Amino acid sequence: MDVRVEECSRPEINSNEVLVKVLACGLCTTDVKTIRKGHRYIKPPCVLGHEIAGKIVEIGEDVKGFGEGDPVVVAPYVPCDSCYFCLKGQYSLCSRLFEQFPRPGGFAEFVAVPERIVKKGLIKMDGVKPEEACLTEPLACCIHGVRNLNLKPLDNVLIIGSGPMGLMLLQVAKLFGSSEVIVSDLLDERLDVASRLGADITLNPAKEKVSTRVKDLTGGRGVDKVIVAVGSPEAISQGMSCVRKGGTVLLFGGFPPGTAMEIDPNFVHYDEVNLVGSFGFSPSDFFSAALLIRRGIMRFKEIISEKVGFDRVLEAVKLVSEAKRLKVVVLP
């Protein structure tokens, strides 16, 4: 994909919208994949970036509850509340989820926030650094995933992958009451970060067989819950070999199109293993994430590797793709 920095007109807003000056926007793996390989739903020309924090600089006359200068975080989408899935309470599956979005995108100096997002996805972030506030969206995805996992207090958890999302999932699992969190990754430097953030045990599959070690640690049972935060079928197989009878495996990371996996149906049937997925977040997840960040509960210093300007976005994409950085935040 051709990536360039261009001058564009400042977005105009209507009476129900607000204009936000972007102060920070996280570089997501979705952005990286789109730049490198394209995306089935994102067609150029477009402005990427959906992890947005900034301050309000203009308010529509019908907007209440916000003022110019308010520091805010902007959700990239909110559900419609009226489709079949919303009425079932499955907000991340909303049929009209992407109908409204911040225009033109977070990698810009200004974004216009549409009415639906103003009402349900615009949150004040007083006293929070923009580079941390912009991580509300990925944190919300982690909260949504752990909720889908049905994590209970004292459950032990294996997280496969300690990238930025895996490291946030680690912290969220602890907050949900996990008694022990095991983290698996091929990169020792990332496992070191996981240890500093509270991982009880770290495992490198290049150095030891993870399933054997997990079974040894759990009296031969396996862990209660597994989170696969890596987009590879091998990681799924590893997770399935580590979960106990009656346990749950969550597929959290996205997978390349055409990815297939082999599962013995009798394993699911006789051992009553649950296989669940997680995508995106609900407004409740987004609010919970913002609250955790506002209260200073999350540790992001170890996760944010670098802050770059527009002129270094392509360099950052390369570094993230090569696993040489954890989280990169773009500062317009």
Q: Helix segment count?
A: 12
Biggest sheet layout = 7 strands, mixed
Q: In CATH's first tier, which class of the largest domain applies?
A: Alpha Beta
- The geometry reads as globular
CATH T-level fold name of the largest domain: Quinone Oxidoreductase, Chain A, domain 1
Which CATH architecture of the largest domain would you pick? Alpha-Beta Complex
Mean pLDDT metric: 96
Q: Total strand count, please?
A: 13
Measured by DSSP, the beta-strand proportion falls in 15-25%
Number of domains: 2
Roughly what percent helix? Answer: 25-40%
| Topology order in helix (H) and strand (E) letters | EHEEHEHEHHEHEHEHEHEHEHEHE
Folded structure, characterized:
There is one protein chain. This protein is α/β, with parallel strands linked by helices and 332 residues long. 31% of the residues lie in helices and 21% in strands. It contains 12 helices and 13 strands. Strands 1, 2, 3, 4, 5, 12 and 13 form a 7-stranded mixed β-sheet that branches. Strands 8-7-6-9-10-11 form a 6-stranded parallel β-sheet, sandwiched between helices. Helix 5 packs across helix 6 and helix 5 (136-149) packs across helix 11. The radius of gyration is 20 Å and the shape is globular. The chain starts with 17 loop residues before the first strand and ends with a strand. The relative contact order is 0.15. The model has no long low-confidence stretch (mean pLDDT 96).
Question: What's a concise summary of this model?
Answer:
The chain has 332 residues and is of the alpha/beta class.
